[in-house]
Amino acid sequence: MGGGLKLLSRLPLASSNCSVSHLSFSFCSVSTQLCESNPEPFSQPFIFNDDKAPYNHEQLHKLRLLLQQGRMESAYRIVKFLVISKSPFPSPCELLSSLSVSCPSLKTTLSNMLLSICCESKLHGEAGDLYGLMRRDGILPGFDSVRMLVESLLETKQFNMILDLFTDIVEMGFRPDKFMYAKVIQAAVKVGDTKRAMELLDSMKSRGVSPNVFVYNVVLGRLCKEKRIKDAEKVFDEMCRRRLWANTVTYNTLIDGYCKLGEVNKAFNLRDRMKNENVEPSVVTFNSLLSGLCKLGRTIEARRLLEEMRENGFLPDGFYSANGQGAMDLYNMASREGVKLNNYTSNILINSLCKEGRVDKAEGLLTTLMENGLVPDEVVFNTLVNGYCRIDDINGAIATIERKESHGLRPNFISFNSLIDKCCGMHKVEEAEVWVRKMVEKGVRPGIETYNILINGYGKLCNFDRCFQILEEMEISGMKPNVVSYGSLINCLCKYEKSLEAEIVLRDMIGRGITPNALIYNMLIDGCCAFGKLEDAFRFFDEMFRMEINPTLVTYNALINGLCRNGRLKEAEDFLPQIKSSGYSPDVITYNSLISGHSNARNAKKCLELYEAMKKSGVQATTKTYHALIRACSKEGITLVQTLFNEMLEKNLAPDRAVYNAMISCYSENGNVEKALSLRDEMLKRGIHPDKTNIIA
């Protein structure tokens, strides 16, 4: 698209002495105006210099008369022909310019007509340029034309431009309707700007425009994607209070959100509510529930659900499972039911096995599927290549690429990227570069992901000079580094206490027009906190707000951890309300940082209070939690410590060296040497050696 739209968001409105009409183009309701006797030119006319000049002049004259007479349908046909043929006017802007010279009073009518035609004809770039010209000339587009322009931008996925356009028309005094709000909220969600989407929803309600189910579904989808299920619940409750009936999409969105967070019971409760409200489940409903059960290893319930699917006339179109054995069980059951797997489903199943390192099982399954008529596609082979790389079997990955070629499938950048990434992960960056050259020899152009892998690989080896060279090579080859390119470098610099260099990279990144995201700032904040540079950490935190980048739970956890490690416990706890107001809930990392901080301060009471709050909120404790608790409570008596140790064992958490050492020290200090020695023997049997500092009195 041309520059029209990019410049529109803060263009000045027409001056007060300029008469401007709000006209929407339609065939039956356009006010006609006669040409002024002494028109004032507003732009340079288009010069005819070909053999068709008389015909072109005739067409323009005819068009002018039709517009003056209000014969809009006939005028529309001529304008559309002139726009699509691009003869004699290369662009709609030049057509508008030429006609307006002789009859400026028709400028508004023709502008809206042209804008509608451009949008209808999918001339998206021309529509944007025309809108920019209209705004510069003080013409306010009609509401129908703006709606069509929004649709045009949505179709071409120019979501940021939709948001700019919306800001502009609201400042012009337009009152957006339900349709307009729905599309703009959809655009905000597409660019990941949840805050803007929520603000638009609030604006919609405050202006008396009632959101519909579509709008709520769009917002719910974004919140669930960000795992902000509590906020999603609030939006859903509000929707119900407004007496809007949730549909299948609404329920599927929430059910999938719950399942991805492991809250399968809540998902099934929603499914029951669907039944009560006579909302029909779809295959998506069942697949989300099936996925949630498989991830938790609840295979028996998954089998029952599969049977229910069959009874409802659904057959699973995929096994969305990270649990390979559960997926295999379901595959065997589906096979007995006569379900034939397609490539998509087969790949999900093979992928689940590869993720567990069971590549041999995946190969065996592929052989069986091929015997049953499956023709493997490149996705299946790419999955296997990645599977071999996961288990450090480079030769197996190479053999799979060769096998892929023998099936008539060319290797693509995905296959090579898996190999290159594995080489970098094994610190074999020179070998990784060899594979980049082989990639080029095979006619596969390295993508930005390839370069990002190399930057990350060299960064982990502290070879930052090579990282900067790769960034230069990307620029030379015409490939613009993205936020991931800079993020990989910033992350590595932060991990090696090079926060100054990391900030220089950040400033260079911003200077090149690449907007950092929350992940970048999280790296910087975490790096500063890890090395005690809290002042710099909070400087970056403040910068996030200035740049309107919402902090994530990772941001808050990094700051809380940094504060706790420096004994600033009150400040750390002050972040808890802020976490909740941002739509997040404290997780195990949050609680572990706070408990460890109070443990270092020997505040057993506070540690236990946090532990109870942790359990009440449903956050599962880890070995690290119990280590901090045991250490804090060692002076409170052996009974309490033993209770905590037993709770840890009941949760199937294996004690590590730190826990054993803390327990042995506690028993030793309390005079129970026999128990201390018993734990020491148990520790040694498990292959864990005690610290030298752990001396049994």
UniProtKB/TrEMBL annotation:
Belongs to the PPR family. P subfamily. PPR repeats lie at residues 107-141, 177-211, 212-246, 247-281, 282-316, 342-376, 377-411, 412-446, 447-481, 482-516, 517-551, 552-586, 587-621, 656-690. InterPro entries: PPR_rpt, TPR-like_helical_dom_sf. Keywords: Repeat. The keyword Transport does not apply. It comes from the Eukaryota. It holds the Pfam family PPR_2. This is Pentatricopeptide repeat-containing protein. The keyword Repeat applies.
